[in-house]
Amino acid sequence: MFLSDLENIYPQIKTHPYRQLAVNNFHRSNKELEQNTVFVAIRGTTWDGHTAIQEALNKGCSLVVCEHANIEHKKILIVKDTRLFYTQMAALFYQNSQQKLKMLAVTGTNGKTTVTYMTEHIWQQLNKNIAVIGTVDHHLGSYVWPTSLTSPDAKELHHRLQEFVEKQASACIIETSSHALAQDRVAAIDWSAAIFTNLSQDHLDYHNSMQEYFLAKAKLFTKYLLASNVKNKIAIINQDCEWGKKLIVSINNLGIKLKTYGKEEADLTFKIIKQSPSGMHISFVYQQAEKTVALPFFGEHNAYNAAAAMLSLLVEELNPLQGAELLTDSFRIPGRLERIVAAKDVFVFVDYAHSPDALEQVLSFLQQVKTRRLLTVFGCGGDRDKAKRPLMARVAEIYSDYMVLTADNPRSEEPLAIIDDMKRGLSSTAYEVIADRKEAICKTLQQAKSGDIVLIAGKGHENYQEIKGKRVFFSDQAAVEEFYK
Question: So what's the pLDDT on residue 222?
């Protein structure tokens, strides 16, 4: 691409001395400054790229894009928003591959991964070659790329979309975090559909309030979906969530096709007929037609997730009720109420729940179906929203017969200090503190009797712990399997 490819968005490029610059590479990090590279200076939460402008020029970067500069130089291009510029450059650099795909986004506090996996399964059963970008990994069929972020950096995102196109993908569904939305990482995409699952307390270490958190999520609909050039683009919203209701009001007059899901008075409604630790029987109704199926998932929250995934079929102009039949096949969603079969006569589940609402959804379901005791092993992440720690402990106390408080990803904090924050939400003594996560899991499994349910919460699919700046291997699933061996 050439710098001039962006001049319709940035008119100042038309008179810039480097208008015809061939862009061979671009970066936002000062660790990758080199000749023939465009450096985009972005003000982040921990580092401001504008402090590296002179360094970039000294190292021979072909262009420096910034929002302000205290020096004049012919290689400097000043724009209003470098985050957005970086994203738009990424889209063009990778040949706008997103335009060759049907692009779906899922946002919300909980359920993003489950909805993407359910959607992928439904579409695959219909021979649609759909790719996934999410918390667990990026994948297209048997091709897998590891990831460390729910929503990747814009350059990585558009590079991945180009790879998906090269491997014959026809669609892509992306887990879209509030951070990615706030930072314009998912701008410059023509969305076919955007799904809102729910909103509850999380990430308030980054967002200053629930309202700010909501506005970041809403941006997917009110800015990006609205700007999409796709005809018949669809907003799919959980109307039973209070924040979902607010989102519906926000987009009602924007001319975007809206489809809702919920237990009553939505476009797609559902009713759980019965459920057990093996799954649930559920009835879905869409446009007065009804479909009752047995799904290999558990809990009301997964009924909502299934409804959202089913409505994604509207992108293909198909009846959502087809999706209900296609979800009856068992398939694995890593770390989302994942039962570890090695436990045999004890029901052991691993789940990613790491917010008060997510933990309550899982525990309330397990409380309903338990026949004996419910034992919960969980922790809270370090260097993250501290306000949710006592709230999570309080939720666990309400539903559990016994709890073991342990480490999650302590990061730079001391595990016992995190646990002390958690203990402030407790009023009983029906718990034990074991900071070592493997020891906590093993001790709980030793106590478990036939028919008991054990929930190991917080890490889900993750196969590591973050401790003092390092990632060390750790898997809840592996710890359980090793114990039973």
Answer: 96
176 and 63 belong to one structural domain: no
Query: What φ, ψ does residue 378 adopt, rounded to 5°?
Result: -160, 165
- Average pLDDT (35-43) is 95
Range of the domain at 61: 3-92
The CA-based angle 309-135-387, given to 5 degrees, is 100
The verdict on 217 and 302 lying in the same domain is yes
Q: Count CB atoms within 10 A of the CB of residue 300.
A: 18
pTM: 0.88
- DSSP per residue over 428-475, as a string? S--EEE--SHHHHHHHHHHH--TT-EEEEES-TT--EEEETTEEEE--
Strand order, beta sheet including 63-66: 26-27, 38-40, 63-66, 76-78
How many domains in the chain?
3
* Inter-CA distances, 370 with 289, 375, 396, Å: 33, 11, 15
**CA 354 to CA 113: how far, in whole Å?**
13
- C-alpha distances (whole Å) from 29 to each of 60, 82, 323, 377 are 15, 13, 43, 39
Task: Read off the pLDDT of residues 335-349 as tens digits, 9 standing for 90 and up.
Answer: 999 999 888 889 999
Summarize pLDDT for 199-257 with one digit per residue, the tens: 986 666 666 788 999 999 999 999 999 999 999 999 999 999 999 999 999 999 898 99
Question: Domain end: 299, 326, 353, which one?
Answer: 326
